[in-house]
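User:
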Amino acid sequence: MVLVMNLKMTCRVSLNLACGALLLSSCTAKNKNSDEVSTPETVVQDAVQKAVQKGKNIYQSQCISCHNSDPSKVGAIGPKLAGSSLELLEKKLFLGVYPDGYQPQRKTGQMPLFPHLKSDIRALHEYLNSVRPN
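Assistant: Predicted structure:
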């Protein structure tokens, strides 16, 4: 029994070390499309860019029927969303309420819930905060 537990622990440690080595090697790997070497900073920048693009796709497919196609501008029904906090997005999209102390830009009360966006809320937030409010 002890041998099996030690073997399981050894496998976990080996797997963690292998994952760590893989992660570190990916941080200093050459970019496939150029001679550039990726650094931790460029890996993070790439991840943020991907999240922003995913958030933009979500915004364009889910939000522009009420909000402006440019999130820094007021839409036909909904307010501008550029710069919205993660807390505001989560409360409005999933609960239909505003955060404590928040003053709504409009009081139409027409916004439906979007529970299917729960796994994508951070990408949407990244996009809305990459757009400069007017």
